[in-house]
Amino acid sequence: MPPTLPRLPRALGLAARPLPLPPLNLLLGRLTRRLSDAHPAMLRRLGDHAARRFLIDPLDLPWVLLLQPQDAAMTAHPRARPPAHDARIAGTLSAFLAMMHGAEDGDALFFSRDLTVEGDTAAVLALRNAMDDAELDLTEELAALSGPFARPLRRVLAGAERATGLHLHRIGGLP
Amino acid sequence: MELTVGPNFFFWPAETVRGFYRELSDAPVSRVVLGELVCSKRLPFWQGEIPGAIEALVEAGKEVAITSLALITLKRERKLTAELQDLGLPVEVNDLTALAHVPEGQPFWVGPLVNIYNEGTLRWLIRRGARRVCLPPELTLASIAVLARLGREEGVPVEVWGHGRLPLAISGRCYHARLHDRAKDSCQFVCDQDPDGRDVETLDGQSFLAVNGVQTLSQSTASMAHQVAALEEAGVAALRLSPQSQGFRAICAGYADRLAGRIDGAGLEAMLRPMVPGGRLSDGFLAGPSGAHWSAATEPA
Amino acid sequence: MMELVCPAGTPAALRAAVETGAHAVYCGFADETNARNFPGLNFSPEELAEAVAFAHARGAKVLVAINTFPRAGAEPLWHRALANAEAAGADAVILADIGLLAHAADRHPGLRRHLSVQAAAANPDAINLYASAFGVRRVVLPRVLTVDEIAAINREIDVETEVFVFGGLCVMAEGRCSLSSYATGQSPNMNGVCSPASHVVYAEEGSDLAARLGGFTIHRTPKSAPAPYPTLCKGCFTSGEQTGHIFEDPVSLDATHLIPKLAKAGVSALKIEGRQRSRAYVAQVVRAFRAAVEAQAAGLPLPESVLARLTEGQAATAGAYAKTWR
User: Fold this and answer.
1) Cα–Cα distance between A65 and A88 in angstroms, integer?
2) Of A40, B147, B217, C6, which one has the fewest beta carbons inside 10 Å?
3) Which family does the record assign (chain B) (predicted)?
């Protein structure tokens, strides 16, 4: 296990900044619907907490994400104007991706303050546990959305993973 | 409902214990459970008082039982537990270990530190010989009502926590010794400095807990002052009053007045508040939302 | 070789445990019948049946924890959990409540019964009582005992013993603690939760992060310091002149180095705490402990523990196994 998580290279963070929100939101919306359809157990595990609004705050990106599991919706917003929410989870993008892909334990990231939580702690726990059980794989989910471009996309993401140290696919054989 | 006095949790000097039980013998209570509950190391300092106390209480017409320890681990403690039978009194089981030493068919009582949460457990204990039980303080009124009904059907009186700092936890570790940077084995009996337990506050100065050797108590004194009608309706047979260092005989009289309808809940509350350590009361295990809550509070506790 | 009993809060964690070398996995149903009734965790009866099939196909056992104390008037929920565990093919159930043990012995005599740590059976008399009255075959020992005491117990009983070797550490006798319900109304015994997340509030105050449980401040930490979860007994409090961790420091148990002594003390199984943790945690801990028990069985030196980062407060203790803890 790496002693410290990588931060997103500054150039990449800056490159993301001018990205206009509408196309990003289109992608996020499709990805979230795809996750919701492909992993129905996730919503079941969330139970009543699925109706909560989760603000996901990747500190090294210029925007924050509002996740509403019940509606299978996720939207990006400028950090300066965060939308109303019930819980906020903040951390580096790499911490989120490592937790999502089973490379890091959520509690350990929390103990070390790589992740911080505000608001409805129980809802955050439910989300963390539901995602952990779903064994998500961002590369495969994006590939599934990309039709004929799935293979080149996998190649690009694998390259990005090597270049940045971010976890972009599920840990198969486990760490 | 009747009144039962539970075992003293604290480490008091022998002469204090002597005076306490002498006073109690003419208090308006039906029965007394005594003996060492918390720490076997304390017992040699006051066990000489036990026979005299039993004699005085029995002579005054009280029913008397002897408690087991709350947590039995050492060989010496197991031997001590086995010997409780020799006193010829009912043993109040407060660690299931003590039950192993009660011969099949011999009656015993069950104290508040045994986990009776449901009918199946109560029924099993009654079949094994339980003749009186005090339920765990954590139970809600709904659970109490179910268990009290079963107790009535089976002819076994069910009592509940009536007054006293709540016994919230028991540990292998001694917090008094830890606070004094001592190991449990060389504690030098520092728990004798705090006759009602040593208060523990939060970092924001909120009144919270109290430590008493290996035991953790609530800092608030639980009181059923405002719950008497509900408990009577639920079919509870007795309230258990847990000893405190100041004014305990008057407290017993206060509860007796309350049960007899001579004073109301507010009257008993007004009497208790200056007498309980720290002046804080709670009844939230019964009335919700949490144990620390006081149902008659105008603001959240 | 000593049996390695590993936690699984989700089917994914169970698969991770089995794939990384668990001899047995313990888990529970997604309701108040088990002592890790946390949001988003645990198994439906169908998930359990699938999990048992997965584990059995790979030579691992599944133990089902039904280790809360049934609520008066609601016992059928717990009775159904027993029936569901048996129907799913569970290798044993882990129980704490006397009434539930009696019911299991009566109605499910073929289903192996283990005594949960929540029953707090801490000496041979209590253990032998549970064994003779309810046919209990294994007892999970409370974390208040020293290794020598464990050895002494094993000399006086006929059932197997299982002890915790890693993870969260209860400082109080388990199953006999109402601290959580005193602050929040919810307890391990009644609701299967301790210091529940639903009652936790974090607040940034000046340069501190304050963590409150049911309105009681459990600790304050400088913003940059590690932030333990506000588990009540590991909080920082004040008593008289003293301020500190009055009950227990925010550390967790790591008894890796005691494995040879525990084997010599006659312990049958080693238990890892953490059904509330992720599959990443399970995989890392199970892999490390499987290597350790194999080394022990082969008489080889134990591998160095690499698990510090996973522990709460990022510090570990041998707990009560060393007598100085008391």
Assistant:
1) 10
2) A40
3) Belongs to the peptidase U32 family. UbiV subfamily.
Q: How far is C134 from chain A (nearest CA, A)?
A: 35
Chain C contacts of A116, Cβ < 8 Å? 202, 209, 227
The pairs formed by C312-315 with CB atoms below 8 angstroms and a separation of 24 or more are C312/A107, C312/A111, C312/C168, C312/C228, C312/C229, C312/C234, C312/C250, C312/C251, C312/C252, C313/A111, C313/C226, C313/C228, C313/C234, C313/C249, C313/C250, C313/C251, C313/C252, C314/A111, C314/A112, C314/C226, C315/C249, C315/C250, C315/C251, C315/C252
Q: What is the pLDDT of residues B186-229, one digit of tens each?
A: 888 999 999 999 999 999 999 999 999 999 999 999 999 999 99
Please say whether the beta carbons of A69 and C241 come within 8 A: no
- Report ipTM (2 d.p.): 0.96
Please identify, in words, the CATH class of the domain defined by B2-166+220-278: alpha beta
Domain count, chain A: 1
Instruction: State yes or no: pLDDT of C2 exceeds 70.
Output: yes
Contact list, B117 vs chain C (CB under 8 Å): 69-72, 97, 189-190
Domain map of chain B by residue range? 2-166+220-278
The Cα–Cα gap between B176 and B197 comes to: 9
**Shortest Cα distance, chain C CAs vs residue A114, angstroms:** 9
For the structural domain made of C3-169+251-325, what CATH number should be given? 3.20.20.70
B290 pLDDT above the threshold of 70: yes
What residue numbers bound the domain in which A66 lies? 10-135
CATH number of the domain where residue A86 is located: 3.30.1050.10
Where do you find CATH 3.20.20.70 in chain C?
A: 3-169+251-325
| Contacts B173 to C, Cβ<8 Å | 144, 171, 247-248, 320, 325-326
**C202, C223 contact by CB (below 8 A):** no
Q: Cis peptide before B289, with omega less than 30 degrees from 0?
A: yes
Pick from C102, C152, C210: CB nearest B120: C102
Quote the CA–CA distance of B6 and B4 in Å, as a whole number.
6
Given a contact cutoff of 8 angstroms between Cβ atoms, the answer to whether C208 and C220 are in contact is yes
How far is C220 from C202, CA to CA, in rounded Å?
10
Answer yes or no: do A133 and C11 touch at CB < 8 A.
yes
Contact A32/A76 with Cβ under 8 angstroms? no
Whole-model pTM? 0.94
For C121-169, write each residue's pLDDT tens digit: 989 999 999 999 999 999 999 887 889 999 999 999 999 999 999 998 8
